[in-house]
Design a protein that fits this description.
Blueprint (H helix, E strand, L loop, with lengths): L5 E3 L1 H16 L3 H20 L7 H6 L4 E5 L5 E7 L4 E8 L4 H4 L5
Parallel strand pairs: 1-4
Antiparallel strand pairs: 2-3, 3-4
Helix pairs in contact: 1-2
Length: about 110
Amino acid sequence: MKIKPAVLRERAGRDVQEAIDYYLGEGAPQAASGFVDALEQALQHIEHHAATGSPRYAHELDLPGLRCWQLKGYPYLVFYVERDDHVDVWRVLHASCDIPAWMEPSE
């Protein structure tokens, strides 16, 4: 098994910051810290086992290779594509958002 580093795209990094800002804005610093911990655990899992993520949205959005992994204890999904030498993290989205609309290219 080859470990592939997870590399967040710029938009994924903004998604993460927006989630942290939301929790902090709600006066929940422990939730913000827990979100970061859950994200780190998810990324570590993905780095070791990228193929275990759900391909559901790959089929729905016609994006071959796209997978997602849910954060434990938080309603967020990590969207990524496994590459030869890394895991390309596209987005980190709240599960209740309109995933197809949010996955549209915006950059």
